[in-house]
Amino acid sequence: MSLVTISGASKTFAAQHLFRDVSLQIAAGRRIAIIGPNGAGKTTLLEIITGEQQPDSGTVVRGKDVVIGYLRQDVADTAGRSVLAEVMAGAGAVSGIGHRLSHIEAELAEASSDAEVEELMNEYGRLQDRFALLGGYGLEAEARRILAGLGFADADVERDIGTFSGGWVMRVALAKLLLENPDVLLLDEPTNHLDLASVEWLQGFLAAYAGGLVLVSHDRDFINTIANRVAELGRGTLTEYFGDYADFVEQREERIAQLERTAAVQQRKVAQTERFIERFRYKLSKARQVQSRIKALERLDRIVVPTTRTKTVKFRFPQPPRSGRVVISLGGIVKRYGQHTVYDGLDLTLERGQKVALIGPNGAGKSTLLKILAGVLPFEGGSRDLGMNVRVAYFAQHQIDALDPTKTVFEELADAAPRMATAEMRKLLGAFLFSGDSVGKRVDVLSGGEQTRLALAKLMADPANLLCLDEPTNHLDIASRDVLEDALNAFPGTIVLITHDRYLIRSVANTIVEVTGGTGTLFAGDFEYYAAKRGIDIEARGATEGRATPRGLEAPVARPRQSAAAAAARKRAEAEERNRRYRRTRDVRIALARAEREASQTDVELAELTERLADGSVYYDPALAKDLIERYNAARDRAETLAAEWALLGEELALAESASEVASASGTRR
Hints:
By secondary structure, the protein is of the alpha/beta class.
């Protein structure tokens, strides 16, 4: 049964055609992920489903009494109510009955006549039966369960919403919507403000949701877990595919290949027709046939083949200065917020080339640790020591919030790079998709993705070799995330990041720091290595928890899980491929390790020689001074040679690994 049906919908803003002739059917158990580039109209389509916007043409039919719940990217300020009260308000009629029962209890205590008591008791009995039928007595317990799953501590649920940050207010809005349990659930980027644990919990919760779900998300793992359909919105059209994101990628490739073949056949026929027209255009005996073919070409519906190469953020981080082997050391860090102690004696050392993902439960102190590493947060005890030649850059949500809404894109970058030439600034902005007239756009008219790209461009105006990144992919579409991941992988410095995007962690991180219980435990390996050490099944999908079915709709059939034998075979094949890839790149890795080792030794030698040459007494012995200067110059030249060799070997290794991946992908397809 269809809950909402969109037929032939079109929408235009000013001279921009967002989409034309879009059709979509939302039914119980159907979980549709809408994907596409920023600005394609995904949020507009959600608002058309709710009725907040109307299509320029086409129809939207909503089933009788169908309740639609909508989580927006931005929520209104609801200060003045407790978290629990706000979430309970999402239960609508049930919550209203609960309030009325409380009022009747108070009125009964003050009733002055038997008639008044009898009337109140009759109303109380009717409402009590209705309240029980709607599950009202389990309402508060359910609300607390949802809030706990989204990361709220027991003590937090009674706090005023106005005391929470915007990300936590967004979680309250999500909890309120989940408690409402509508027939159709619309979620616009629901994971943007959640940590990994909360994302896993939400996946399990939605696995038991039986209504129609429409999800706008750029989180591929989340889509793979939740969706059973993917609808791609782009170039003014909506194309629906069956399955999850991985199925979408495969089916889209097949569809494009088929379109290319069909378009090639059509183009050959068009070319033949055009040659006929050109040959016989001025021959009177063929005039009727020529005119017929001209009209046929005018009526022809040309096949347009979508390209997979969409215009995205295409950049590489500028080459930063080379740091020493040890990039940063924290010793005995003590950090408190009032009476709450986050760290009491934290030790952590990071080295050049590490790409670190900070993971851990909500409230464990990940953001606090990242800010201490970045040098933007003071601490009460301990030491923070930067290595030789280390320069730090920090990216977080506040960089986006700090953008001046009255300034243009170009003016914002100019403030961050006063010594950069105009041509260089335009080149940098162009790498982040700001070109032509777009550099003159005011910040207050930019989308969330555009503001994120501008903040990243400002960060790149002054190259650093230690990047501290807090949720860098928020508001970026999938294609832009792909390019950012490539850039982070190619970055030769050190990275520390916090992200809820598990795909990003697996793609980039070669080191995991688990933040929990006031400690930071370093795992010198990728996410799979960390999961193996901790005994975590990263293949498992969130646990399904019991959930009431809205308005009697049937629950969807769960997708079958992979068998143990198939999973073991897949893991063996992956391990064999990793071993083959390692053998193909072993010699380069050995040379790279040797260059790294010699460069570190040379760095130590240079530091010692610099210290000795700074001693004025050395120059009383001309022979000693000459020897030290010659050794210093030789060490400096050797350091430059090793740095160049290290960079060259790094590029060679990256190319070798890329070739191995291509070979692996080809073998998989065969």
